[in-house]
Amino acid sequence: MNAPFPPCGPRVSQERGQRAVFCGLTGIVWLHRKIRDAFFLVVGSRTCAHLIQSAAGVMIFAEPRFATAIIEERDLAGLADAHEELDRVVGRLLERRPDIRLLFLVGSCPSEVIKLDLGRAAARLSGRFAPAVRVLSYSGSGIETTFTQGEDACLAALVPDMGTSDDTSLLVVGTLADVVEDQFARLFADLGIGPVRFLPGRRAAEQATVGRGTRYLLAQPFLADTARALDNRGARRIAAPFPLGAEGTTLWLRAAAEAFGIAPERVAAVTAPGLARAGRALDRHRERLEGRRLFFFPDSQLEIPLARFLSREMGVELIEVGTPYLHRQHLAEELALLPAGTAVVEGQSLDDQLDRCRAARPDLTVCGLGLANPLEAEDRPTKWSIELLFTPIQGYEQAGDLAELFARPLVRRSRLEV
Length: 418
Ligand code: SF4
Known about the structure:
- Belongs to the BchN/ChlN family.
- Keywords: 4Fe-4S, ATP-binding, Bacteriochlorophyll biosynthesis, Chlorophyll biosynthesis, Iron, Iron-sulfur, Metal-binding, Nucleotide-binding, Oxidoreductase, Photosynthesis.
- It holds the Pfam family Oxidored_nitro.
- Protochlorophyllide reductase is composed of three subunits; BchL, BchN and BchB. Forms a heterotetramer of two BchB and two BchN subunits.
- The protein is globular, with a radius of gyration of 22 Å.
- It has helices at residues 28-34, 46-56, 73-76, 82-96, 109-113, 118-129, 149-158, 178-191, 224-232, 245-259, 264-289, 303-314, 332-337, 350-360, 369-377, 387-390, 399-417; strands at 11-15, 38-44, 66-70, 102-107, 134-139, 169-173, 196-199, 214-218, 236-237, 293-296, 317-323, 343-347, 364-367, 382-384.
- It is 45% helix and 16% strand.
- It folds into three domains: 11-20 and 286-417, Nitrogenase molybdenum iron protein domain (Rossmann fold, 3-Layer(aba) Sandwich); 24-145, Nitrogenase molybdenum iron protein domain (Rossmann fold); 169-267, Rossmann fold (3-Layer(aba) Sandwich).
- The chain has a six-stranded parallel beta sheet with strand order 1-12-11-10-13-14, with helices on both faces. It has a four-stranded parallel beta sheet with strand order 3-2-4-5.
- By secondary structure, it is an alpha/beta fold.
- The structure holds iron/sulfur cluster.
């Protein structure tokens, strides 16, 4: 492990070694629910198809909005023209599904191995199917992306497609459940901030504009490429912690309000009712969580904001906070709120981390699905980090649900013990 950084805050170190994380294809599971007239066509193998189908729990009677164009062995051997086949698959799909307005070609490990240029394919297909359908591409491959980086790659692919406007506006960036988005839209309206748009939009035609007057607020901590793409379009980021828990939500809203010159008294008045409701909801779970010792394996990149929420609002003791990547600029406000000396580990060396986890005997371990089963078999309670992406957890009204996600495995454990 490397030298601590920064000296007066958390102890940040890096590790390299074997990793255990999902690839970026997983993001399709929540992205396809958000953009309602989009379709995600993974250009990949049967393994990719199985991953998406099992992660999404496909319903037999639903018309799904994702699929896999399987690259067969003859494609891998270079015997078939993959571009021609892809054009055929896309043609058939769009003929059968006239409701699709935005088609993502999603790269995978196999498409990278055969060096299939999906950017070129997307441009060609866009020319053929525009204006009815826009075709974009991004990579969700396990070679290039982990888990939540798939959403980052998808949103970054949307940015060049956004219209230009230098008018003053707020752009909230990162997939949020519709119910959470509606709550935030109401709060921004009450604060007098507007117009407010969200990236991604709920429909292909609803994509926001961007330009020098755009101030953007990240709603998720894993959007480095998207932020860079927005910066390149002239937008400016509003530095803030993330809207997890009562405190995080207040600081996030306050940062936006300051950027838009809203008086502190108005911010206090608008946020007070939600803050009070969140406080009452959190009180119900504090007894269960206070003093409990938590270990985070690196997985979703949500680890640092979650650790901040759990330690400051729920009294949880942090043993180690692993994160696959640490964007020091985007996470600066979060790192400053962590208790001094918190062990933050960027990257992963799986065996070393498992050794430390076993030695520390945490009350709860937050990790990916692949690690949860073996740890549970060793009688160590776990929380699946993927649930934190599928469940609405941001904002005042969801603060109690967020705490409950961590309290539930402890409650279940105590019932089993009884
Ligand atoms: Fe596996 Fe790569 Fe397909 Fe992800 S993209 S499911 S890591 S083969």
